[in-house]
Amino acid sequence: MTYKDHSIEAQHPLHIILPFDLQRDPSAFNPENRKYLYAIFPDVEVISFDKRFLRFYMNKLPSKPWPRTIAGVPAYFTSDPTNEGPIAPIKRASSSRTRLSDDIDCRYDPTKRRQLFELIQKHFLKVKIGIYEIQYWSNFVVIVLDSDDTDMTAVPRAVASCPCYYLFKSEMGRRRDAPVLATNESHGDIYDDSQYAVLRPGIMLSSGVDEESGQELLTTSGILVQDMNGDQSMTAASQGVPHGQKVFHPHQNGREIGEAIMELPYTDIALVRLHDNETFLNEFFENNHMLKPAPSLRGFIRSSEVASGSTVFMDSAFTGYEEGIVGCYSVTRIPTHDPHDPHGPATMEWIETRWDYFGQGSSQKYVDGAHGSVIWDGDGKILGFFRYAPASGHFVDWRHSLSVDHLIDKGFTVGEAMRR
After folding, report:
1. Structure pTM?
2. Which stretches does DSSP call E strand in 283-380?
3. pLDDT value at position 290?
4. Are 200 and 113 contained in the same domain?
5. Which residues constitute the domain of residue 21?
6. Residue 305 backbone dihedrals phi, psi, to 5 degrees
7. The pLDDT value given to residue 213
8. Of the candidates 78, 109, 142, which is a domain's last residue?
């Protein structure tokens, strides 16, 4: 019996399971198994696989909704032969022969990524070439250059045995220089402004009315965390809840739930002290799209401990429940202010970040307001806090997030339930 006989074409399940799993064994993309893949849809011309994504080039696209994963990896569908999908950006290499620290090998070892990042940062600082981001893709790195006019003969071909590829900051598709918030007029089709007696991750928050626009600014709750002194607070995007600002749920005409007491330096994360009469559970609501019950968030997990290609999740009042896959580790330079002088001049600091892929077309439904939402894995461990989703460029359908390594290094843990 073929897979055509199972009517997969008509059903388009979210996840198509085959006798082989390409995420666990990329070598299973062989001629025998490709027969199964070609049998799923009609009008398939070419199926390609880069060890991360299956790309289906077709004469005619199938009806939606399309499967998110096939044989354990994300699927991408196109009728445009020039559309390569969400592959890693490895088209622009150095025009030099410069190889740095060839006696070190940082390939396939995420525990060495910090050493690799430091080698790259020191070199570019020495040669006075501005860089915005460094991405670690297991066996190579992508370096994002500040200027489109950078001399490509002046940048290294490889560092610590990792080939180097390059993007320009202008190609990153950033919506604007800083994360922004939703307003009461900018939300999309998914918009949960229900008022909940018990606070949880992913619910709507308000910091009141913006003085310039006159519109209410909305953002998303993060999680309950505990510092080294045992004090508990809720996280949120710092742009959404400035220091000293009162915080409401779900709107400014809802109930006041707390006050922003500080911003964690270099993180875009604010801490909100909740009022004594509030209850906060680090648990998500049940969702019909979840393949298993909603998890309790059980702790943090460092980026180096997360397997590339594994499944991650995000849930927000502005996006709904979403599934993605782990992409790459990165460090990003961001403007930041002294927490004791929030209105003073900004300085540029490196922060640990990550890129995760959330599926074809996911950027189309994204709206501002989800900043600060947590991203977690299948074990309920938190990997990061969502920062932004590019509107164009190479990383459309990817999500950029702050790694929780920052909070771990500062002594934070996931808080116990806060009950009134």
Report:
1. 0.89
2. 299-300, 311-316, 320-336, 347-357, 374-377
3. 60
4. no
5. 3-78
6. -95, 0
7. 77
8. 78
